[in-house]
Amino acid sequence: MAVAANATDDSMQLEKYTMTYGDTVRTYTMYIPSSIGDGAPLVVYTHGYGSTTRRRDDLNAVADSCGFAVCYPDGTPDSRGYDSWNVGYPSQEGMVVDEADFFRHLIDEVASRFGLSKENVFMAGWSNGGDLCYHLAYTEPVLFRAYGSVGGLLFEDIYKNSKLTAPVPFIEVHGNADNVSMWCGDHANLGGWGAYIPVPLAVAAVAAHNRCTTMAVDTVPNKSDASRMVKRTFYGGAPSHCDVVLYEIDGGKHSWADGDVETSGILWDFFSRYLVDTK
Questions:
Q1: pLDDT tens-digit profile of 228-237?
Q2: Is residue 10 included in any domain, yes or no?
Q3: 135-144 residue pLDDT tens
Q4: 26: domain CATH number?
Q5: Which of 31, 33, 149, 264 matches a 20 to 30 Å C-alpha distance to 65?
Q6: What are all long-range contacts of 196-202, with beta carbons under 8 Å and residues at least 24 apart?
């Protein structure tokens, strides 16, 4: 077991593990605070398209203070050779990876190998990893206890042709000046990722599927620029208690948004509402 003593040094290398999946060998990295015990919660972080950032020091720091482990799996190459998660990009046309099946095996592998909870497992995804949050929420909503997307998007074909089969807690953190996963969507597919719907509509659609009955809007401070507003929209009142939250960062670009808000802390605060007692 690789245990990191310090989550603040971005140059620190964590041990990489391998997992046999079908006829392939997949890799992942673990961050396990020394203070956690058997059955601790697990957050699975899914990286961006071709991203070299495969772990988040701010997420590790929250794991230290709140007592959960983090798994950082590596995606698989698409036709361009970029590691990614199969969500239907044009460059992924030849990919045959069933992501839901892969993560089902990954959860079992990681939880068994490191003595972690198989029930209190959450997904935090960035960019392509955020797209995956929407994809799995629609196709396998109960695979994770809750989903947290940062800079993610919902494709039109899923929105038009699929529906959530179970309520799912969902949170999105997104800049309204994002020029990659555009706030107002990309119906004409100008970005080349495929047509996708506006971010507020994507989040509201999950809230509607959850049968949320209330909506509240407030603001939270921008930690680096007081002149830029961060608007929080909270959908609640669902019979299942599966809430949906949207953080809109005024002027926010395509990023993990940790320059504007405490992204990892926000995600864990949301996830922690859905912890279940497994004893």
A1: 999 999 999 9
A2: no
A3: 999 999 999 9
A4: 3.40.50.1820
A5: 149
A6: 196/153, 196/154, 196/155, 196/156, 197/153, 197/154, 197/155, 197/156, 197/159, 199/153, 199/172, 199/174, 199/246, 199/248, 200/233, 200/246, 200/248, 201/159, 202/134, 202/153, 202/154, 202/159, 202/172
